[in-house]
Amino acid sequence: MKVPASLRADERGSIAPFFAIATLALLVMIGLVVDGGGKVRSLQQADAVAGEAARAGGQAIVASTAVRGQGAVADPVKARQAAQAYLAAANVSGTVSIINGTSLRVETTIDYQPVFLDLIGVGTLTSTGAAEVRLAEVLNGEVNP
Predict the structure, then answer these.
(1) pLDDT by residue (tens digit) across 1-19?
(2) Residue 104 and residue 81: Cα distance in Å, rounded?
(3) DSSP strand pairing (125-134 vs 137-139)
(4) pTM of the prediction?
């Protein structure tokens, strides 16, 4: 059966808008997967760096009190310096807080620049992480409060 020329002319190019919309939707979905994964990685990195910086700072204790069995107390100056040195070495911005001389809290911020979503106007995504360590005296395998 032969289709009249008048009907064929009206259908010419009808798939082009569908193809353009489908391609755009596919690119947005790829962007969500790629940039969503990048955001998750930056969140994991922010938490990991915060934890390691807190650990580094938590090792800075006042030696004289710990040696005498008077408990582990953070040296606030050395603990803050150690944690900030770790943050600087990891090239991550963050804050370090000493709480009651026995806890150290580190909060980090990492920016992620989207690859695909930047094309549709999604700007820099910020990830934050936090970690806290508590110093405790341990005698014969038992933690003393």
Answers:
(1) 665 555 555 666 667 788 8
(2) 12
(3) unpaired
(4) 0.73
Task: Confirm if 138 and 69 have CB atoms less than 8 A apart.
Answer: no
Distance of CA 107 to CAs 48, 99, 129, Å?
11, 13, 6
Measured between its terminal Cα atoms, the distance across the chain in Å is 91
Average of per-residue pLDDT across 111-115: 89
Q: What is the pLDDT of residue 87?
A: 95
The domain segmentation of the chain, as residue ranges, is 14-144
Q: Give which of 37, 57, 71, 64 is closest to 103, Cα–Cα.
A: 57
For 10-64, list the strands marked E by DSSP. none
> Contact at 8 Å (CB) between 90 and 97?
no
Task: Indicate the DSSP class of residue 84.
Answer: H
What is the reported pLDDT for 77?
84
Q: How far apart are CA 97 and CA 28, in angstroms?
A: 41
123 phi and psi, to 5 degrees?
-85, -155
